[in-house]
Amino acid sequence: MSAAPDIDRLLTALADPHRRRAVELLSNRPRPAGELARDLGLSAPAMSRHLRALRDARIIFETRPDPGVDYDARVRIYALRADGMAHLKEWLARAERLWVDQLASFKAHIEKPPGDKGGA
Question: How many structural domains compose the chain?
């Protein structure tokens, strides 16, 4: 099975600057949705839409805080998935290898002495 749909979903989710900033904030520690909305200057409904896109792309996951004295069942805590960008990292590594190989071939070609036909 190809990882292309996963990569497409990841890149689409990360195309939005608010979502990228949310990922940056979550890289420091898990946070409640309200805190993310406040730090990003977004309304709760807008933040909810961005978090849904990141969750659907499997970049983040959602939990609820442990019940306690100030427990609010509406609160959700968001955190980065450890493997959330694994497919993207693998895809980028393959693309980098391709470019390195292509550039090495190009370099070898342009550095051939004049009149050197090369070949087998």
Answer: 1
